């Protein structure tokens, strides 16, 4: 079994909002990273956000989180490719962060399993899909776990480490150790229930806020202020939904609802309509609020 201290090379498969943030987090902690996505455009945008995004390395240097002369070295530790085999062939630890679609994830896991070294651990950054199903698509289910980061990945301190049905204790320990090396605080989720710990609770706050807006209880600004000023949340539920992405929010609540049948997670019409309209939040410049590009 690979030891935490032997892990040097990381592959991040899926280089969107979360994947690029996760790649940056590993590079900031000194790891060599290869980021992979299906086209050069996504890779270019990911690198741009790692460099000069709101939580990119230049901002981190400006805020004194990393030494100024480290910024370039961190960027240089991240390579990108569209070739999956190339990305994982020397990896000790692989993070899957593709779109939240179980069939796609299973396909990626099977391909990664074929091409990665036998000792490599494969984790998924899924926010709601079953780790056990992804593990079953590989010949190494004991070396598959969940490693759920929060947005923005370089800043948020939590990592949920999720045990699938066949994940070994050693794998859980290694993933936990890696999270600590990243400067994060891991929590262990012993059963891969949909939504794990944080989303099971956090999503309800956002859904309740949307239902209140839909029912005319209060304006979105007042609901956001209520939670920021009354509960000291750093962001109101609508600001947070825009940050997470309304498409992601809808996928997560549908996944929890489908698995549990619990009506509290049933998506409000307003959320569904906003996703249909393409008002997905900050990443497109418009969600509950408008954002300058
Ligand atoms: N590395 C390390 N630290 C960094 C950094 C980097 N690359 N870039 C910035 N930072 C630090 C800053 O120095 C600052 O630290 P400080 O508080 O010690 O000064 C901190 O990050 C915050 O940065 P800013 O001051 O620029 O930004 P704000 O104070 O406006 O905070 C925010 C922005 C962190 C997004 C805050 O509003 C927040 O915490 N919002 C809530 C986010 C949240 O709840 N995320 C979870 C979403 S749910 C999810 O992702 C799960 C999914 O599955 C749905």
Describe what this molecule looks like in 3D.
It is built from 13 helices and 8 strands. The protein is 46% helix and 13% strand. Helix 9 (198-214) packs across helix 11 (237-244) and helix 9 (198-214) crosses helix 12. The chain folds into 2 domains: 4-189, 3-Layer(aba) Sandwich (Rossmann fold), CATH 3.40.50.720; 199-284, N-(1-d-carboxylethyl)-l-norvaline Dehydrogenase, domain 2 (Orthogonal Bundle), CATH 1.10.1040.10. With 293 residues, the protein is α/β, with parallel strands linked by helices. It has an 8-stranded mixed β-sheet with strand order 3-2-1-4-5-6-7-8, with helices on both faces. The site of 3-hydroxybutanoyl-coenzyme A has 20 residues, from helix 3, helix 9, helix 11 and helix 12. Residues 55, 59-60, 63, 65, 127, 150-152, 154-156, 199, 202, 234-235, 240, 244, 248, 252 line the site of 3-hydroxybutanoyl-coenzyme A.
Largest sheet: 8 strands, mixed
Bound compounds, please?
3-hydroxybutanoyl-coenzyme A
Helix content: 40-55%
CATH topology of the largest domain, what is it called? Answer: Rossmann fold
Q: What's the mean pLDDT score?
A: 97
Structural class designation: alpha/beta
CATH class of the largest domain: Alpha Beta
Total domain units: 2
Give the uncertain stretches in residue-range form: none
- Number of strand elements: 8
The number of helices is 13
Question: So what's the overall shape?
Answer: globular
Calculate Rg over CA atoms: 19 Å
CATH architecture of the largest domain: 3-Layer(aba) Sandwich
Pattern of helices and strands? EHEHHHEHEHEHEEHEHHHHH
Distance between the termini: 46 Å
CATH superfamily of the largest domain: NAD(P)-binding Rossmann-like Domain
Strand order of the largest sheet: 3-2-1-4-5-6-7-8
Q: How much strand? A: 5-15%
């Amino acid at each position: 079994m690979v030891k935490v201290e032997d892990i040097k090379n990381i592959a991040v498969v899926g280089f969107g909002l979360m994947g690029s943030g996760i790649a940056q987090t590993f590079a900031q902690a000194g790891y060599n990273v290869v980021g992979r996505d299906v086209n050069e455009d996504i890779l270019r945008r990911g690198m741009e956000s790692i460099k000069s995004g709101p939580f990119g390395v230049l901002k981190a240097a400006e805020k004194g989180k990393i030494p100024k002369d480290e910024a370039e070295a961190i960027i240089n530790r991240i390579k990108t490719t569209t070739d999956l085999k190339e990305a994982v062939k020397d990896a000790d630890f692989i993070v899957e962060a593709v779109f939240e679609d179980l069939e796609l994830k299973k396909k990626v896991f099977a391909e990664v399993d074929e091409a990665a070294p036998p000792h490599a651990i494969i984790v998924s950054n899924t926010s709601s899909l079953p780790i056990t199903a992804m593990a079953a698509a590989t010949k190494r289910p004991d070396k598959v776990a969940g490693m759920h980061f929060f947005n923005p990945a370089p800043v948020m301190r939590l990592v949920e480490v999720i045990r699938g049905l066949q994940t070994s204790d050693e794998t859980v320990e290694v993933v936990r150790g890696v999270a600590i090396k990243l400067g994060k605080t891991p929590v262990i989720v012993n059963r891969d229930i949909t939504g794990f710990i944080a989303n099971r609770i956090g999503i309800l706050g956002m859904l309740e806020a949307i239902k209140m807006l839909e029912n005319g209880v209060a304006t979105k600004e007042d609901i956001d202020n209520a939670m920021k000023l009354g509960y000291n949340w750093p962001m109101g539920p609508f600001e947070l939904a825009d940050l997470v992405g309304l498409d992601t929010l809808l996928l997560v609540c549908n996944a929890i609802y489908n698995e549990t049948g619990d009506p509290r997670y049933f998506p409000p019409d307003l959320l569904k309509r906003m996703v249909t309209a393409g008002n997905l939040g900050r990443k497109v410049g418009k969600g509950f609020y408008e954002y300058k590009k």
